[in-house]
Amino acid sequence: MASKADDFTPLSGAALVIAGAVLALSNFMIVLDTTIANVSVAHIAGSLGISSSQGTWIITSYAVAEAICVPLTGWLAGRFGTVRTFTFGMIGFGIFSVLCGLSSSLGMLVAFRIGQGLCGGPLMPLSQTLLMRIFPKHLRGQAMGLWAMTTVIAPILGPILGGTISDSWSWHWIFFINIPVAALCAYGATRFLRHAETRTEKMRVDTIGLALLILWIGALQIILDIGREHDWFGDSKIVILAIIALIGFALFLAWELTEGQPIVNLRVFRHRGFSAAVLSLSLAFGTMFSAVVLIPQWLQTDLGYTATDAGYVTAFMGVAAVIMSPIVGKLTNKVDPRILVTFGILWLGLTSLLRAHWTSGADFWTLAFPQLMQGIGMPFFFIPLTTIALSAVDPDETASAAGVMSFLRTMAGAIGTSIATTMWANSAVTARSDMVGAMNSEATREALQGAGFSLDQVRGVIEQTVQQESLTVAINHMFLLSAAAFVFAAAAVWFAPRPKRAVDPGAAH
Hints:
Layout: H1 2-6, H2 13-32, H3 41-48, H4 52-55, H5 57-69, H6 73-80, H7 82-102, H8 106-120, H9 123-134, H10 140-168, H11 173-176, H12 178-192, H13 207-226, H14 236-258, H15 272-301, H16 307-315, H17 317-331, H18 337-355, H19 364-392, H20 398-438, H21 442-450, H22 455-492
Helix pairs in contact: 2-9, 2-10, 2-12, 5-8, 5-13, 5-20, 6-7, 7-8, 7-9, 7-12, 9-10, 10-16, 10-17, 13-14, 15-16, 15-19, 15-20, 15-22, 16-19, 17-19, 18-19, 18-22, 19-20, 20-22, 21-22
């Protein structure tokens, strides 16, 4: 097996085309699952009898599980082989997709989404690794272009597909559609990639570091998910979880910084450029992803949009991103990437300010236009930041640094979503209280009763109006806070020095 791995030559002809398609499709499916459920939260919440804020657990649980498993990718591939790990991960993803679709309670769905995340976490970096392995050196740039295209297009189609499926069939099918894709990719990997298997060796895993990572991240995420329902630190459960998270995090830092083969290589943070880039990335991505989750919920709960229409509104974000990505790729080699990142993040802040003026009577294009504009700034944000971060570390640390970046980006999205969901709900309560205290409903009551409404109907109309407007005021407030967060993220990148070396196109994931 070792000799076969060492003597492997890149594929060619039909085998290369089919193998490349299998890897691109697998990456597409994994990325798609990060957004396909966003517009289906209202359907799932209604079906399971839970609140919308609880419904977001199906998004954050998947993201956290995926983030935890990403650092294990290198160990899994080295211990069991890249192709074998990819194949079993794909099979596991398909099995947990079936279980997610069959779930009848929130607990079941969250548990199986965690399983999905654990199996899917390694698939994205492994698909990238295998593409670089099977393509000849002179075609690797095109291979990475194919991989990047699936990464960009999947979030566009995710909301549209999720909304259409939820409205036309049921939310269960957003998970069932993974089954044929997972089966096809697993078969394709077994059939066309088996000769690309890498050599294996007995490797030790940092079990203590992994256990501590799961402990403090799990405790933190539970706090963020259930904190609002449990009155935060007024509940002893939250206090205990907070203590566990703090102690677990402190022990994790101490262990990883002294461990010879850490599960997460925290030593890469000694490079100022990497630390600044990751800080900027975490702030910007966490802020952006939280809006991607909140907007469909607001459209459906407040404006009465169907999941399909909410999906079309949010999907506009990816259209301009596809167009701008190759342009930004060329500019990165000619312009200081810090300037490009600053432009991109401030552009995202500008689109947040456009959203801060939304009203409950906004038409489709008023809502879709900021989404379309946001897509222009996204490549300016992602691509140059990767260059800044990975060029700052030593060449032999590139893989570790890429893993840390992926881990923190995913965690930032999950944590940002939990915080934003809670803040939106709390802000809506405050706005509602202010409206009720200031309103004079006597004239409205007389006008409606004059039009034939009963007193109970009048009260219902006023209640609905206040609720609708309070949610709108609250989400406008969130967009203003988002704009401020983007400004801080843009400023953070200037703590990094200008990159001095090029980064291999297959380094990031």
